[in-house]
Amino acid sequence: MSEKVTFKNNKGYRLAATMIGLNKGAIRPVVVFAHGLNSSKESPRNVTIAGGLVERGFCCFLLDFTGHGESEGDVSDISVEQFALDIGASLDYIESVEGVDPVRIGICGSSMGGTAALVRATFDNRIKAVVLRSAPAEGYFEYAGKIQIPVLIVQGDRDPILKESRILYEHIPGDKKLVLIKGADHLYSREEHIKEAREAIGQWFSERLGLDTGPGTFRDRRDAGVRLANPLINYKDAKDVLVLALPRGGVVTGYEIASRLNCPFDVIIVRKLGLPWQPELAIGAVAETGRVVLNESILSAYGVSEEYLEGEIARQKIEIRRRISLYRKRGKIHDLKDKVIILADDGVATGATMKAAISTLKAEGIKRLVVAVPVAPPETAAALRQDVDEFICLETPRDFMAVGAYYLDFAQVSDEEVVEILEKSRLREDAQTHGFSF
Predict the structure, then answer these.
(1) Do 136 and 240 fall within a single domain?
(2) Any idea what the CATH number is for the domain that residue 351 is in?
(3) SS3 of residue 237 by DSSP
(4) Domain end (from 160, 188, 209)
(5) Beta bridge mates, 2
(6) Are 340 and 242 in contact (CB under 8 A)?
(7) How far apart are CA 381 and CA 95, in angstroms?
(8) Are residues 425 and 367 in the same domain?
(9) CA-to-CA dists, residue 194 to 221, 370, 415, angstroms
(10) Which residue range is the domain that position 296 belongs to?
(11) C-alpha radius of gyration, the chain, whole number
(12) What is the pLDDT of residues 83-116, one digit of tens each?
């Protein structure tokens, strides 16, 4: 949904803005976009970033500052301070809009609009998180030291103001992050650079502002990963931590965890063994090391034959070999010895696949094993908790039905998506090795 709105600023000028992603049947967090000098709410870069946020469940407010676009005012009215006042007028207006959560407001400011966002965020407690994209801060560094909310700086490494952004970052206390977009100039002239910025900004606001999914429900696997990362924050930046995910759905969730903890990411391949007439009901699982874990109670209850079991194990081993060949471009799994392993999935039901992965990892000389899942039935959660050093589970509904019932979007994850995520993770690790921050 897109809607054009107008309101007045402190000087009585009519300001224009466009709201996108507003759903008056739900309460959404909102991000206000503050454009740069001689730009407008139609900035293709801001429109692209806002579109990514709307896909994640946000509402976005794209503003024309005084003397820009469809807003009133002239050149003499244009300044960083006036832009900051215009942001305040925008927040006043937003508070009256049905469908916007007034306690989950972020600002995404670019260039001069970013400097104005920095100024406003130091004293307006309605703002809960801010992103500064290529914001010239010389002369405004003093404001950075006063800011008390999370700040993300997104900066092209070929932008002339790169040095300013590094100084700005050093002045900011508390929760902060600097993302360098390799090869990007001040205007993010190449499409891949603005897409990279969009992804970083989307992740930041999703984590800091959250999404409206309702109690006990996750928007999608990415949202689940974002929410799982919070109770794991003590592992952030630790050199001996490795996040492993169970493909395919768990890869989306696990990657979000690894990204936020700033640690390496890989998959551990385990295949469920299913009943012949009900393949989703696990009678056991087999791991890529060859280890087999069986659910003896289900085997006995359904009278599964030895012949079927051997055939099912053989079939799943073939699939494991296929996935190893497809997913493991690096040749083999990360070194596991003496590592703290965070094992992630998008949820568990019987727990058979997870138990096979746990047994496999315990045999590899790891230091500590943490299992992190969004949802599980209480009895499965209790059993898994006994098998690991730490168990993180966000939801344990007593009337558990199926993992997918606790997601608004539980679309199947393809092999292609898994390969893409693993490649993205490898690029992130390579970039960090060469000194780039993600």
Answers:
(1) no
(2) 3.40.50.2020
(3) coil
(4) 209
(5) 20
(6) yes
(7) 41
(8) yes
(9) 24, 35, 26
(10) 221-433
(11) 24
(12) 999 999 999 999 888 888 887 899 999 999 999 9
pTM of the model: 0.53
Residue with tokens 């090869």: 183
Backbone torsions φ then ψ of 30, nearest 5 degrees? -130, 145
The torsion of the CA quartet 328, 347, 413, 261, rounded to 10 degrees, works out to: -60
- State how far the Cα of 280 lies from the Cα of 271, in Å rounded to an integer: 11
Please state, rounded to an integer, the average pLDDT across all residues of the chain.
88
| Cα separation, 362 vs 359, whole angstroms | 5
d(CA 229, CA 283): 31
Distance CA 407, CA 397 (A): 13
Q: Is 382 helix (H, G, I), strand (E, B) or coil?
A: helix
3-state class of 178 per DSSP? strand
User: For residues 411 and 208, what is the distance between their CA atoms, to the nearest angstrom?
Assistant: 25
Give the span between the Cα atoms of 349 and 282, in whole angstroms: 9
Give ∠ CA 317-318-319 in degrees, rounded to 5.
90
Specify the CATH number for the domain of residue 91. 3.40.50.1820
Report the domain count for the chain: 2
Same domain, 232 and 204: no
Structural domain includes residue 242: yes
Residue environment code for 93-119, b if the CB has 16+ CB neighbours within 10 A, otherwise e? bbeebebbbeebbbbbbbbbbbbbbbb
CA angle 256/153/94 to nearest 5° reads 85
CA distance 374 to 217: 9
Question: By C-alpha distance, which of 251, 249, 312, 254 is closest to 286?
Answer: 312
Same domain? For 196 and 294 the reply is: no
E strands in 232-367: 241-245, 265-267, 270-274, 282-287, 292-294, 340-344
Q: Residue 317, CB half-sphere, CA atoms under 13 Å: how many?
A: 10
- Rounded distance between C-alpha atoms, residue 145 and residue 325, angstroms: 50
pLDDT single digits (tens) 328-358: 765 667 788 899 999 999 999 888 889 888 9
Residue 362: pLDDT above 50?
Answer: yes
Q: Assess if residue 408 is contained within a domain.
A: yes
